[in-house]
Design a protein that fits this description.
mainly alpha, 6 helices, elongated, 131 residues
């Protein structure tokens, strides 16, 4: 795995990989946030309760300063948090009538995980090289 990543860095350049993984993080973060908000507001049924919406959105929103500030460590932590949404998506996919939404949430959170881990690696290496 390490050799493969180093080969990617040599072939494409660390700056390009950092930029691409950042775009993946931002795109998948926004989509996951919208999916969670959609589920909270439109799928709850007749009675609306804002507490579950806040409980699912808050962990994502807390990482906005790390994403905006382009901090590698914050992206690494966001990768671990995204696994909670992956688990939730897989569990949702097993429910009748929720399969598509569950699979979509699992795929988007997996993309967020991959993007965050890649960004954390490439950004930290980029900072080390640039001093």
């Amino acid at each position: 795995m390490r050799q493969w990543l180093e080969g990617l860095e040599a072939e494409h350049g660390i700056d390009k990989l950092t930029r691409l993984t950042r775009q993946l993080v931002i795109g998948s973060f926004v989509i996951l946030l919208l999916l969670v908000i959609y589920r909270g507001f439109f799928v709850q049924g007749d009675t609306f309760n804002w507490r579950p919406v806040v409980a699912f959105v808050l962990p994502l929103v807390l990482f906005l300063p790390s994403i905006i500030g382009q901090r590698a460590r914050g992206h690494a932590w966001l990768a671990f948090v995204s696994l909670l949404y992956f688990t939730q998506g897989v569990m949702l996919a097993t429910l009748p009538g929720q399969g598509t939404r569950g699979v979509l949430e699992a795929v988007v959170s997996l993309a967020l995980f991959i993007g965050c881990m890649g960004y954390a690696r490439f950004r930290s290496r980029q900072q080390r090289l640039n001093g």
